[in-house]
Amino acid sequence: MCLTGSTGVVMAPTVFEGTASTIAMIVLLLEFLMLRSALLRAQVRLYAAQSTVVSILAAVIAHGRSLPELYVLAVISFALKAVLVPWVISRMMRDSATEIAGSGVLGVASEVIVSIGVATFGFFAVGALHIHSPVLPSAALSLAVAVVLVSFVLMIVRRDVISQSIGFFSLENGVSLASLVVAAGMPLILEVAFLFDLLVAVVVFGILMRTHHRHAESLSTADLTSLRD
């Protein structure tokens, strides 16, 4: 993405901006891989990889914009989202023999096409707003919104608790990416508080997984539609 200076001259993006945009694109691609993956454990590993990439982006911004507190955030984010959360989900999956993600209302190819359309809409809709950030190029914010929208698609189309929880957790990664774009300099205590909100979500989803598996002896949520009758 090229930038236009105050004199009207088109300037090439810096190495820092190019690196940040590339990392944001990797986060989005990993979200697509989660949607495409049929194995639950593969989804967990992809979420861990995505969380690692978001943590790397925080470290890149800390170095590029001289924000040392973001190094602390990167370490905490990696420990919590790339290590602890995947470990907790994997421990919960040991009680179930289910390895295949629940099929959704659409086929995998159709789900990917829908998610591409949703991501494209989010990317260009944010771009049309001409939002500029002194921290990251605006393309990174557009990619963050695309990640959030694809996460919603993952939560909606899949019919198993693991995929839905992974969709929710990866949605938080998209929100983290957006916050790094627009408010990387916010107080560290506020950013850490957002991460502890994720811990609460892990506990809630953990209780949901165990309770649902105990009663239904399955991780599929398809049978829950009978409650509407």
UniProtKB/TrEMBL annotation:
The keyword Transmembrane helix applies. The keyword tRNA processing does not apply. It comes from the Bacteria. The chain crosses the membrane at residues 20-39, 46-64, 70-89, 101-129, 135-157, 166-186, 192-209. Its main location: membrane. InterPro entries: HyfE-like (IPR038730). Keywords: Cell membrane, Membrane, Transmembrane, Transmembrane helix. It is a multi-pass membrane protein. It is found in: Cell membrane. This is Hydrogenase. The lineage of its organism: Bacteria, Bacillati, Actinomycetota, Actinomycetes, Micrococcales.
